Amino acid sequence: MYSRRMTLIVIISVIASFSIRTFGTIFPQIFKNILIVKATILINALFILSHLLFWLVFYWEYISTEKVTLKKTCILAIIGSFAVSANYMKKLPFVFGMNIHFPLFLMIPYFEAVVPLISSAFHLIFFVSFKKSLELDEQPRLSKPILSIIIGISIYICLHLIVLFNFLATDRFEWLEHMPRVVAVSTAPLIIVAVFSILFFYYRFYYFLDSGYKIETGNERSL
Known about the structure:
The chain is built from nine helices and no strands. It has about 220 residues and is mostly helical. It has one domain. α6 packs antiparallel against α7. The longest helix has about 35 residues. The protein is globular.
């Protein structure tokens, strides 16, 4: 069952990415070190890639067999994850000292500012639909975790709006931790709440998959 493995990998990558970004918010001077910058880019890219792989496996092993009615909204979430991964992957050549020319639309600042917001909206649509589709035997174990990730994603949508409004006002794209100190510090508690809300879902979903709940794999479906 790959879904459970991917859920664990996402949990680890979220913690790693969140930890280094939080540390960078508290001690922004560390980003003056080029090795720290490259390590941060690499960790964030691994997090985004693991998140995308989770959604692909989640769709294949769970949605397409147990929640067929959620196929369309899950595909939206996958598209959102893929678009965000493209945003991060274009930074990897810098880490390895390579010079790669990406399609022009990927390099437009509007793409970097708008895509995370749209992706979060797609994920929110999926989880709202997911919560409504829960069976009676799933509700005790998944209802609260799904509500938790809905809250976390909603917070991130608000944070992405701050980033977008800042971009429109200054014509310069910046993540929250790179904005003026007062903005970076004041939004940190919201980020902490959002991350822990999202982690709570993955943590409970990991044990939901380990509780004897049967997920039919692709090989089993072909028999």
